[in-house]
Amino acid sequence: MHKLVLIRHGQSQWNLDNRFSGWADVDITEQGMTEAREAGELLKREGYAFDVAHTSVLKRAVRTLWGALDAMEMMWLPVHTDWRLNERHYGALTGLNKAETAEKYGDAQVKVWRRSYDVPPPALERSANEAVHDPRYAALNPGDIPDTECLKDTVARVLPYWNEVLAPAISAGQRVLAVAHGNSIRALVKYLDGMSDEAIVELNIPNGVPLVYEFDDQLKVLRHYYLGDAEAIAAKAAAVANQGKAK
Ligand SMILES: O=C(O)[C@@H](CO)OP(=O)(O)O
């Protein structure tokens, strides 16, 4: 039996401020670091160990990984960072307050932008897209740098990372930890669980909670579950869902 542990980064400053983050490189808060460390402590207590870690090129995920690894006494672990694990690009919504956006456009429209499978938020003008000049994306073909992304677009770049990097490592017996983002994790979960385009709309990933996948030798999902208090985790996920509602 093989396992993969996924963690969404701890609370970021823009999670706290209720702003759309996407590819903006926002740091985590003190609470976010506490969540990161608690995730690591929980994994350690439950007897988890890892051979390799993967994360995005955004500091809220990288720092969460550091906090979790520190708590596990595993800061020596090999770490791979890759843009394909980044949060979904939020286009022209990046930086806007989610509740204010819902007041302006309605809760239903904001839910479509946040959670629909194939409706992207309005795109950024290319000239306003800072990622184009960001050295961390220099190796990408400019056409691969998004100006906005729906979840389907996110799946289209997360899935190759699964197929080419994560799945072969897991099949080879490596114990993999991946720290990513609400929507890059939704993209992977949609694929792994074979969720419909309709069902994925209701899935919200809580910050800083280890999500364990168990696979058979063919990497068929046997089961998946969060570690920790189920009620507290459900409350955290519900709070994420409610971030997109007008006050
Ligand atoms: O702002 C974002 O980038 C994401 C995750 O924080 O938000 P949402 O939950 O609205 O998709």
TrEMBL record:
- EC class of the enzyme, as a word: isomerase
> EC no.?
5.4.2.11
Q: Does the keyword Isomerase apply?
A: yes
Q: Which UniProt keywords apply?
A: Gluconeogenesis, Glycolysis, Isomerase
Instruction: State the reactions this protein catalyses.
Output: (2R)-2-phosphoglycerate = (2R)-3-phosphoglycerate
A Pfam family that this protein carries is His_Phos_1
Under PROSITE patterns, the record lists: PG_MUTASE
Annotated GO biological process:
gluconeogenesis; glycolytic process
| GO molecular function terms listed in the Swiss-Prot or TrEMBL record | phosphoglycerate mutase activity
Pathway, according to UniProt? Carbohydrate degradation; glycolysis; pyruvate from D-glyceraldehyde 3-phosphate: step 3/5
Q: Which residues form the active site?
A: H9, E87
Binding of substrate occurs at 8-15, 21-22, 60, 87-90, 98, 114-115, 182-183
The site feature described as Transition state stabilizer is recorded at H181
Q: What does this protein do?
A: Catalyzes the interconversion of 2-phosphoglycerate and 3-phosphoglycerate.
Assembly, in brief, is:
Homodimer.
Question: What family is this?
Answer: Belongs to the phosphoglycerate mutase family. BPG-dependent PGAM subfamily.
Q: What is this protein called?
A: 2,3-bisphosphoglycerate-dependent phosphoglycerate mutase
Species this chain originates from: Rhodanobacter glycinis
